[in-house]
Specification:
Chain lengths: 347, 271
């Protein structure tokens, strides 16, 4: 476990009122005694006042990550909102083991990379710790609300269109959006854990907050001037965002999505509301709410903290070096050709 | 006591000296002083765009038919006075041959056609706006074209840790001029659609200087000993996008070029 996440868990404990109800110092397992928060710190929370930028905005600037082991939805069989520290540790260990042992090392099956070899697994990077059993906080059962009839109809239409398009490797357009290097989940909104290199850079200037997502060098520039949403004919993959400060919380509303990269099946009329609050030097509390009456009869919300991490953000030139797509398609064509020739030969 | 004409003469001489002094001062420094950013530096925040034909060809060039017949006049090349100072680019002989080959095969070879990151300084004068977001530690240059972005490190200067399309930029202030020093480029981007190119030895120094409330002077020194016999300069004004709701929009062009790049790998129906 690296030092950065030690700092994160220490300050996360300090900052989050929920976690403070747990006395980590006494209950931390022996193996992680080094991570125990001193009892004095855990017992004396101080309200945190974020520093200000030169133009007076609460300062959210820096390098952040939303890498986390907490799943979006509460796992089956789990009914409570928070784990004990031991349970959280056990859940993390199990997930980390799954990541490292995707395939049996040294076997033929082990051709896909073992994430931990390249430091891509979450345990080798800073991650945002939480005792939550799910990122979803509303509905209270920690799971997505049911999809309504309109949403089901749209899902069926999308599935039919996919079937119509043919096999997953028939054409580049049939492949996942992320594999095509168009956009990845970390960009959102809402900001979702990218799985690895889940890094963000926030920079503020008068009237703007800028969020750079490492993959795929996605930038959202959020104006703070209360401007209206653009005309409904202007649609973007990331929608169009507008923000305002409410005290120390940045509230960002995003609409005008093009519906091509839906969050959990949402329609193009989805509205995302995000709230960013600096609650510690090394943590931003990040909450989001999804509203889409065309898919769910009620909004749903999640909390996914951003932990401070080290920069820099490296360039991620995804499309420029996307040999994978070309090789996958060429490989599929070669397989088809070989199968066809084999068939001819055996006739 | 001095007589009136002596006094008048003296006053006139003083006035002349004063005017001469002011004129001299104006010749030495620009007359415009930009408003301050909150930290006291010149405020370069805003959405900016070049307005010239450098993206077609940074050297002086006549109007000409474009490379795609079906586009007719809509795809033809407008003329340009050139943004390169002091005549044609100082190519090494073998590099000039390569530039001409690039130009002859531009539809196949120009990285812009494939929606690849545009490199520097091409990103500045693409026919799209870009936004400057200025903070004390970082100045962000966010381009509408292909969502390209550059981080200019204003403190903690380090060498480029790896090659990249947009390079590694270290920045500093010289008075009201933002000086951006960029290295660590790969050799895959071009300077324009006319085949002008560089190697991975490229070193670019850009200077952004406010010249009026809504314009910047953009001056660039380019150095690449593998391709050019000496450094050379380009310069152009940059114009502020003054619409009240001006914003950088999405030009996520990867999707627009997929058929071009991978169409030949599609499964043919019936096979």
């Amino acid at each position: 476990m690296n030092r950065r996440s030690l700092v994160s868990i220490g300050l996360l404990t300090l900052a989050s009122p929920v976690v403070l109800s747990v006395n980590l110092a006494g209950q931390a397992p022996a193996a992680s005694a080094a991570r125990a928060v001193p009892a004095a710190k855990a017992a004396a929370p101080k309200p945190y006042t974020p520093p200000k930028t030169p133009d007076g905005q609460p300062d959210l600037q820096g390098f952040w990550t939303n890498s986390t082991y907490v799943p979006l939805e509460r796992p089956q069989g789990v009914t409570k909102e928070f784990y004990t520290p031991e349970e959280a540790e056990a859940a993390i260990k199990a997930a980390a083991a799954r990541e490292a042992e995707q395939t049996e090392p040294g076997t033929t099956a082990d051709v896909h990379y073992d994430f931990s070899q390249f430091g891509l697994d979450r345990s080798q990077s800073t991650f945002a710790r939480s005792l939550r059993t799910s990122l979803i906080v509303d509905p209270p059962d920690g799971r997505m609300p049911p999809v309504n009839d309109e949403g089901k109809k749209r899902a069926a239409e999308r599935a039919a269109a996919r079937k119509q398009a043919g096999g997953p490797y028939d054409a580049v357009q049939n492949m996942p959006i992320g594999s095509r290097c168009i956009i990845m989940g970390g960009a959102g909104p809402p900001l979702m854990n990218a799985g690895y290199n889940a890094n963000y850079h926030i920079v503020q200037s008068p009237g703007y907050v800028m969020i750079l997502t490492e993959m795929i060098h996605d930038v959202r520039i959020i104006p703070l001037d209360n401007r209206a949403a653009p005309d409904r004919n202007l649609r973007q993959w990331v929608g169009v965002s507008r923000g305002r400060w409410e005290g120390n919380t940045l509230v960002v509303e995003t609409t005008n999505f093009n519906g091509r990269n839906p969050v959990r099946g949402a329609s193009e009329n989805m509205k995302v509301t995000e709230r960013f609050t600096r609650v510690a030097d090394d943590m931003i509390e990040y909450k989001f709410t999804i509203e889409d009456p065309a898919t769910w009869d009620r909004p749903w919300s999640a909390e996914a903290p951003l932990a401070k991490t080290n920069g820099p953000i490296f360039e991620f030139a995804c499309h420029e070096t996307n040999y994978g797509i070309a090789n996958i398609l060429a490989g599929a064509r070669a397989e088809e050709k070989a199968a066809a020739e084999h068939k001819k030969g055996s006739n | 006591m001095p007589n009136r004409s002596f006094i008048r003469l003296t006053l006139a001489a003083c006035a002349a000296a004063l005017v001469a002094g002011m004129t001299l001062a104006q010749a030495q420094a620009p007359g415009y002083r930009a408003p301050r950013a909150p930290d006291g530096k010149a405020n370069l925040n805003g959405i900016w765009q070049a307005m010239n034909t450098a993206h077609w060809d940074i050297e002086a060039h006549s109007a000409a038919p474009g490379p795609v017949l079906e586009l007719g006049a809509a795809g033809a090349i407008p003329a340009g006075l050139g943004v390169v100072e002091g005549g044609p680019l100082p190519y090494r002989p073998e590099a000039l041959a390569r530039r001409n080959e690039n130009r002859a095969n531009r539809l196949k070879l120009d990285p812009e056609v494939k929606c690849y990151l545009p490199g520097v300084p091409r990103a500045t004068y693409m026919p799209f706006p870009f936004q400057i977001i200025q903070s004390q530690k970082h100045v962000m240059l966010v381009y509408e074209y292909a969502g390209a972005v550059r981080t200019v490190y204003m403190t903690d200067h380090v060498e480029a840790p790896a090659d990249s399309w947009m390079g590694w930029s270290n920045g500093r202030w010289e008075g009201d001029t933002l000086v951006v020093d960029t290295r660590g480029f790969n050799d895959l981007s071009w300077f324009d659609r006319a085949g002008n190119f560089h190697s991975d030895a490229l070193h670019v120094v850009e200077r952004f200087t406010p010249r009026s409330a809504d314009t910047l002077n953009y001056e660039v020194t380019v150095e690449d000993p593998k391709v050019f016999t000496r450094p050379w300069k380009m310069s152009m004004p940059l114009y502020r996008r003054v619409e009240p709701n001006a914003q950088i929009l999405e030009f996520r062009c990867v999707e627009f070029v997929e058929e071009l790049l991978y169409g030949h790998l599609k499964k043919q129906s019936g096979k």
